[in-house]
Amino acid sequence: MYLDSLSLCRLSKCSISEKDCAVLASALNSNPLHLIEMDLSENKLGDAGVKRLSELLHNSNCTLKKLNLSFCHISEEGYADLISALQSNPTSHLRELDLRGNNPGEKGMKHLNDLQKDKNCKLTLRLLSSPAAEEAFASLSKLLGTNPLLLRELDLSGKIQGDSAVKQLSDLMKDSHCILTKLRLHNISITEKGCAALVSALSSNPSHLTELDLSENQLGNSGVQQISKVLQDSNTRLAKLNLSFCRLTEKEYATLASALSSNHSSHLIDLDLRGNNPGETGVEKLYNLQKQRHGELRLRLLNSSNAEKAFDCMSKALGRNPLLLKELDLSGKIQGDLAAEQLSAFLKDSHCRAQILRLKNSRITTKGCAALCSNSLHLKALDLSENKLGHSGVQHICICLQNRECKLEKLRLSDCSITEDGYAALASALKSNSSLHLTELDLRGNNPGDTGVKKLTDIINYKRLR
Description:
By secondary structure, the protein is α/β, with parallel strands linked by helices. It is 43% helix and 10% strand. It has a 6-stranded parallel beta sheet with strand order 6-7-8-9-10-11, covered by helices on one side. The chain has a 5-stranded parallel beta sheet with strand order 1-2-3-4-5, with no helix packed on it. Helix 15 (420-432) links the parallel strand 15 (410-412) and strand 16 (440-442). The longest helix is centred in the first third of the chain and has 14 residues, at 131-144. Keywords: Leucine-rich repeat, Repeat.
């Protein structure tokens, strides 16, 4: 091959192979003084071919200024050879290197990062394959004040807003030179369109992202269906997904459970669904999935540390998952006001489906009663018998009974140290709520005084209580 006075060499799309690279590199090495620009784009050079070309870049007599290796099937190993050659030659004339459309992997991007950190490096790198990706790169660089391609973790919460911004970010994420592993997009007004753009990016470049936070965005059922496509993709490495406070309902829970059940090679180990509404079947579907995955999937459902403490305590006491139970009999199994306060936080959580609660003889006083009553509107039956509630405790119960959203049908307050004043308060509360569902009230073992029984009897006859 004769290249004695050649300054420009364009061999794009010429079916040059690894072997051809060896011949080309040998010829150029023998006479490297004239060539200034070389275009080898869209040839299947591979890492072996690039290794041969790197020998030319090692040569201190090489005058090459522009080298185009875009879409040449180069991976981590080829990037390592190129960067090594450039770093070993401080007198290199190379000013522009085009690597678009190749796959650098994590190590390749690290090598590029190391090269760009070198103060003596005057090289301009072309890495992004589309104008849309370049536009996104420019926008994010300005926003963040740093090169987004060098980041492994990116938190854009509060920095971008809406689907159009997410679409632009997705254009960058599609490129193989984007190696984000953690992405946080908390509360930035993403809807179905934004989800679709993210899913498209993750399908195009699925091998890096392991954590995605979309919390406090109104994704809707269509958005969750888009996310489910990622969960079904066996090439996706997503391990942690945060969809807390996204207004998901029973339908979306079913969609997520179905997607994860269909992908036996899923990497997902942490799913955060706090603050959503699973309906009647959502929690059960998720725990069936967790069982199917042999406990490898961690579900975050409860919205407070107190609720989690109550969950742990009840799980040990009952030997079952309390989130799957509609009836919780904790009589004598939890004790004191602190336990009652933690239980109240559990009852408040949207993932709690309990309808019947028994806390007989659990050493609950006014303080614990106040906490429980603040989150008991959805209960149909409540047993607080044999706890020293007194008049103050009864007043908190009355507040619950006066609430038109109260669903209580059965209330047991036997042996609770209730006096005449407590009876009067109960009678007043029952009378004030015309929509009350209560059909059974147990007050055995208390002290009604002279008027307590009559006041309740009048209400009982009117309300037809037992």
